[in-house]
Design brief:
Number of helices: 8
Shape: globular
Radius of gyration: 37 Å
Number of strands: 52
Structural class: mainly beta
Largest sheet: 26 strands, antiparallel, barrel
Strand content: over 45%
Distance between the termini: 52 Å
Length: 966
């Protein structure tokens, strides 16, 4: 009797459909049409395979952007690896442009069908099949007779359109995860007929549970079925090929179970009900299954595999032994596998597991996983799983490497963020780790907050602890970085100098906050405290070289259109400099208490004939000098060289030369205002813009100014001229250079400028570079920018490329022009900031092909014919796996010539390396070397590093563990 039971096999390969119909709620009636796919996006990842449609007859018509087909007789439809045959079918097909190309979406309804996968295996037959899919391949139609008109309305068309409408409505309220394959589902109970085909979106309380449906039927299939009736309970024994399909009346709460053996516990009832192959869900007390048990629920959002499983339908709970739970996080994009010795489902969205191993890998021994003695898993409304666990370990290849007692947070966000192991001679063995702080504390991370905990240990130095906070509260966005360590021993600074550190507590506290008060008002706050002058140069070398000035300040700005008002108060808590670029440029900082500014840019006057820009500042400021000597700060005294060639002694005060020049640390008060007028006009093909500016300052209530002038003025006049010429060469076609047509664009430009002041600009104290870093004299800036453009890509995919760009300019300066720096520079937008000297300046880029590019720049001082500085290099893309580059740089004032090489090589899917040496010809030795080898795992990258720095005369080596999915 059992062998005669025949049921349809429900194959659910999940899709996610996003429908732009508004937010679902109980009051929101959504217009859903079943006659078209317009407005519906089926994010089934498009396959490259084709869709083939065959039939004897087809009726074809169009509704909006959807092609409709009614097929009859000898139908065969192939979608990817699935092939279906039927005698009647209704199809919807539409095409949708995307960034990846045109995607074809298809939906198929078959009232009767037979399915046979191309790859072989179990076939099936049944009724009311509905299939949706997506492809970037071809869609072919092969029919004996094609009618290009809509057929008369029939029951088949009505049923199919109701089926599509219900499908879209269901996915609009409960979208399943994204899948790579078509979705194939059988039809639910026919929907209630309405005249306008409207559906009311269900409220959240109506959505799917994970366990059994609230109502519906259980379809049973097995090789052998034996029933033992009883007065209080019927017991049904199932053996071989068990397939239990729980279908709800609304098709929204389905569950599929497969196993080798099983027992059903049912209410007493008629044997004929069981013989029909279906049982009412309300009659089921429980299900016991064993032997490769698989439970698939919520359209594949939850899949459980276990050797043994028991569902208690009366209490809504389940117990699974030696089980594996698969669910999805991050909006259904990342699978999570939870292996447990015992897994209990205590609610529709909650499990309790013991002896747990959680990972994103389906392998029995994953590369990286989190182990726990006990874990409670709760599926949240956003699709992510929230866990609370005890006695946790991070495991690499099954081996525990980290332990923490409690964890609370998203299952995909394990506390460990990264690990670094290495060695330096002044730090010893290094062990640096980064953790998610709130996860370690066992509490949920507050909304808008991200907090990392740094735990470091150095065998030769001590222990370091820090936190990195990032937050967003309303209109406040900022960060708070704290680090503290107990340090002692000999340390090496970024200059390579060694200094002794006695036992002391060192570290920093850095706060930055930006607040948008209104559309026009914003406030920025910074607090910077660093324990001592050498901490950043020894422990945070990258920040020491590139970070902005460490300051404690509050800055407020009001801006409306092209007018703004600013207020700045700035004070140095540290009283020393922790930026290498600031030490190299000037050996002091500036406090402002406060600075008020008013700015107005590009105001139109005289009906647009003249534009006026103004800047005005009222400032109270003072200099804060760097204390100590180069030797005390671990600096090389060669860094403090003077224009006359003398070098500061290693034990001389860094501030002494500045004090000798008459600078002091007293507060100074001044008002500075600058006004610029420009009169741009068009003269034929030329755009000409005469301009003039005046800057003046007044010092007041200043007690000690020495012999420095506090009342001064600077005026400038000039004219800028530009034009553009171009010509197109249509007959250019060279495959070797990949040139297909050529356009030559020539852009000449000219600036003539003169500046004058009542004082020598080199005597102005440099409190603020924007106000004080000015030049006098006369200059002519003349250049031509040439650009050659071509087409590449081929028919159907042409795109424009700047094949060759060359910008050459001559700078002519008067003998009295200000040359502030060794390298000549000209800033056309504000010439008084320039360092004026006769020079030739050039830069260029040659995109020889899509894989080879050359770039270079250089500055020549024409008075003595010397090369000031420049570089030339090339980048080669050898294909998908290899990229290389080479660069040569030369700097005259330091007499350095560098040759840098680099290679990125993807050896295989698992290994890659990066190799970048740099050679200094001035010392005829290696300047630096960086060598990385990366082992790529599915969940993390393991990076081995060897770094050599000639300046520090130090080699560092170690390993980094960088998590990917978590």
């Amino acid at each position: 009797m059992a062998r005669s039971l025949r049921i349809s096999i429900l194959l659910v390969l999940l899709t996610t459909v996003r429908v732009a119909m508004g937010t679902p709620n109980a009051e929101n009636l959504i217009q859903i049409r079943g006659d078209r796919l317009s407005g519906v996006v089926l994010p089934v990842r498009p396959r490259a395979s084709d869709i083939q449609i065959q039939a004897l007859r087809a009726d074809a018509w169009t509704v909006d952007d959807t092609k409709r087909l009614l097929l009859t007789n000898n139908i065969n439809i192939t979608i990817g690896a699935y092939s279906f045959t039927s005698e009647r079918a209704v199809l919807w097909i539409n095409r949708m442009p995307t960034d990846a190309g045109v995607v074809t979406q298809i939906a198929v309804y078959m009232p009767e069908f037979a399915k046979s996968p191309k790859t072989g295996g179990l076939s099936a037959e049944g009724e009311n099949l509905f299939v949706v899919g997506s492809t970037q391949g071809k869609v072919s139609l092969d029919v004996a007779y094609l009618s290009q008109k809509r057929p008369s309305t029939s029951e088949l068309l009505k049923s199919s359109e109701k089926r599509l409408a219900q499908y879209v409505g269901k996915l609009q309220t409960d979208p399943p995860p994204l899948t790579n394959y078509p979705q194939v589902t059988s039809s639910p109970t026919p929907p209630i007929e309405t005249s306008e085909m409207q559906m009311e979106a269900p409220t959240l309380e109506q959505q799917r549970q994970w366990l059994q449906p609230k109502s519906g039927v259980l379809s049973i299939a097995a090789d052998f079925v034996e029933m033992r009736p009883g007065e209080t309970e019927n017991v049904v024994t199932l053996t071989g090929g068990i397939n239990l399909n729980l279908q709800s009346s609304d098709a929204l709460h389905d569950l599929q179970l497969t196993a080798a053996h099983g027992i059903l516990f049912l209410d007493p009832g008629s044997v004929r009900d069981l013989a029909s192959g279906t049982v009412e869900i309300a009659d089921i007390h429980g299900v016991y299954l064993e032997g490769n048990v698989v439970a698939n629920a919520n359209n594949g959002k939850y899949v459980v595999r276990a050797p043994q499983m028991y569902y208690d339908f009366d209490t809504g709970k389940a117990v699974m032994l030696e089980s594996v739970l698969r669910t999805y996080v991050k909006n259904g994009t990342v699978p999570i596998y939870v292996r447990a010795k015992e897994l209990q489902q205590v609610a529709a969205n909650q499990w309790i597991a013991t002896s747990v191993l959680a990972s994103t890998s389906s392998f029995a021994t994953p590369d990286i996983a989190v182990g726990a003695a006990k874990m409670t898993i709760t599926q949240q409304d956003n699709g992510d799983a929230y866990v609370v666990s005890d006695h946790n370990t991070v495991r690499l290849g099954g081996w525990p490497i980290m332990y923490w007692p409690t964890y609370s947070g998203e299952i995909a966000n394990i506390p460990l963020r990264g690990v670094k192991l290495g060695y330096q001679d002044t730090k010893g063995q290094m062990f640096e780790t980064k953790w998610k702080l709130f996860s370690l504390l066992g509490v949920r991370e507050p909304t808008g907050v991200s907090a990392d905990l740094l735990l470091d240990y150095y065998t030769a130095r001590g222990i370091g602890v820090g936190t990195d906070f990032k937050y967003r509260f309303g209109e406040n966005v900022g960060l708070l970085n704290l680090y503290l360590m107990s340090d002692s021993g000999e340390e090496k600074t970024s200059s390579g100098r060694k200094i002794d550190i006695t036992d002391e507590t060192r570290g920093y506290a850095l706060l930055e906050n930006n607040t948008v008060i209104s559309q026009n008002w914003a406030i920025q706050t910074k607090v910077s405290y660093i324990s001592d002058p050498t901490f950043m140069s020894a422990w945070r070398i990258s920040d020491y070289r590139t970070h902005g000035e460490y300051e404690t300040s509050i800055y407020a700005k009001y801006q409306k259109e092209n007018t703004s008002f600013t207020a700045l108060a700035k004070y140095d808590l540290n009283q020393f400099i922790s930026n290498s670029w600031l030490l190299a440029s000037r050996q002091y900082k500036v406090d402002k208490a406060p600075e008020l500014g008013y700015f107005n840019y590009g105001k139109s006057m005289f009906n647009g004939a003249v534009t006026w820009s103004s800047e005005s500042r009222l400032t109270r400021e003072r200099m804060v000098f760097q204390e100590g000597t180069p030797n005390e700060l671990g600096l090389k005294n060669q860094a403090f060289a003077f224009p006359d060639g003398t070098v500061l002694g290693g034990n001389e005060s860094i501030a002494a030369p500045l004090l000798d020049e008459g600078l002091n640390d007293d507060y100074q008060n001044r008002f500075v205002t600058r006004h610029e007028f420009a009169m741009p006009f068009q003269l034929g093909a030329f755009t000409i813009a005469p301009f003039a500016s005046m800057q003046a300052q007044w010092g007041f209530d200043n007690e000690d100014t020495g012999d420095k002038e506090t009342n001064d003025w600077t005026r400038t006049v000039g004219v800028r001229a530009t034009t553009q010429l171009q010509r197109v060469y249509n007959n250019v076609d060279n495959d070797l250079l990949d040139l297909h047509r050529l356009r030559h664009v020539i852009e000449p430009y000219l600036t003539v400028w003169n500046g004058d002041s009542n004082i020598d600009p080199m005597d102005i104290p440099q409190y603020d570079a924007q106000l004080d870093n000015i030049a006098n004299g006369s200059a002519i800036w003349f250049g031509v920018k040439n650009k050659l453009q071509t087409w590449r890509g081929g028919p159907g995919r042409w795109y424009q490329v700047d094949w060759l760009t060359l910008d050459t300019a001559l700078l002519f300066a008067s003998n009295d022009a200000t040359q502030r720096y060794d390298n000549p520079q000209f800033f056309n937008w504000r010439p008084e900031y320039s360092s004026l000297q006769n020079a030739f300046i050039a830069s260029g880029t040659w995109q020889f092909s899509d894989s080879i590019a050359f770039i270079g720049n250089g500055t020549w001082e024409t008075d003595n014919g010397t090369f000031s500085r420049g570089s030339i290099g090339a980048e080669l893309d050898h294909g998908r796996d290899v990229r290389t580059y080479v660069e040569y740089r030369e700097i005259r004032n330091t007499d350095d010539q560098f040759l840098s090489l680099g290679m990125q090589y993807q050896l295989s899917k698992r290994y890659s390396f990066h190799f970048s040496p740099s050679w200094n010809f001035a010392i005829d030795d290696l300047q630096s070397l960086r060598f990385n080898v990366t082992r790529h795992y599915p969940d993390f990258n393991l990076v081995g590093q060897i770094n050599y720095n000639e300046i520090q005369n130090e080699t560092t080596y170690g390993f980094n563990l960088n998590l990917l999915k978590y």
